[in-house]
Amino acid sequence: MGNPLNPGKLIFISGWATDSSCWDPVIKKINRTVSCRHVNWWECLNDTVEENALLQILEQKTSDAIVVGWSLGTLAALEGTASRPDHVKALVLISGTARMTSQGNYSGVDPRALRAMRARFKRSSRQAIEEFARLSIDGGLDSWPETDEFTDTFVKQAEYLNRDHLAAGLQYLQEKDLRRVLPEIGIPVRLLHGAGDRIIPVDCARYMQRSLPEAMLEEVQGGSHALLYTAPFHVAGFIRDAIDANFDSQ
Hints:
CATH superfamily: Alpha/Beta hydrolase fold, catalytic domain
Strand content: 15-25%
Order of helices and strands: EHEHEHEHHHHEHEHH
Number of domains: 1
Helix content: 40-55%
Number of helices: 10
Strand order of the largest sheet: 2-1-3-4-5-6
Shape: globular
Structural class: alpha/beta
C-alpha cells in the first residue's frame, strides 16, 4: 500500500510505570507518515487545562487528532476526549478500561488487589513494579529468560520515574470511573485487548464496546496486558488501520 501522507496527528499517552518510550517498539512499525505527539500519563491526572498536557494540546484548536492510549493512558484519553469532544477525531485504546476496579455487576480488578498493590508500593516500589511487569507480559512471552530480561529492563526504566507520580497513578487507577461519559463519546473508538490480560480483564473492554456509540473491539487470543511489547506488529497494524480509516490519504 506504500506510505501515504496522512494530514493528521497522533497523540500517544503512555501507561503506568512507563514514559513515552513504551511506544517506540510500535511507532517504528506503523509505516505511515503522520505527525506524532507524546503525552506522559502523569501529565494528565488533573482536569484543568493548566495542569493537563493532553488538554493543552487539544485546546490548540485540534480537530484532526487520533488519541492513542495504553493501560492508564486509556483513562486519560477517555477523560480528555469527554472534556473536549470536538477536538478529537478518533480514539485507539490498547489494554484499556473506563474503570479499573469491579463494582456491583461491573467486572474489573478486585479493589482489594489494587489497595494491596498500593500498600506494597509504599513498602517497596521496586517490588510492586516488578510484579506489575511480570503480570503485564504473562502469556505474551513464552520463555523465562525473555520474561526475566523484560522485567529487569522494565523495572530499571521505571525507577527513573518520580515516585510521587507513580503513587498518584495508582490512586488515579483506583478512583477514576468514566463509565457514565462513554455514551457521550460519539467518535470512532477502536479497542484492542489481550484475552489473557491479567492487569485489566478483557471484560472491561467488552463493557466499553457495549457502552460507546461507535466502538469496535478486537481481542487478541492469548494476548497479555503489555501488547506494546509482546505484540508490537499487531498493535502497529491496528493503529495503521485507524489512520487509514480516519485520515484521507494524499
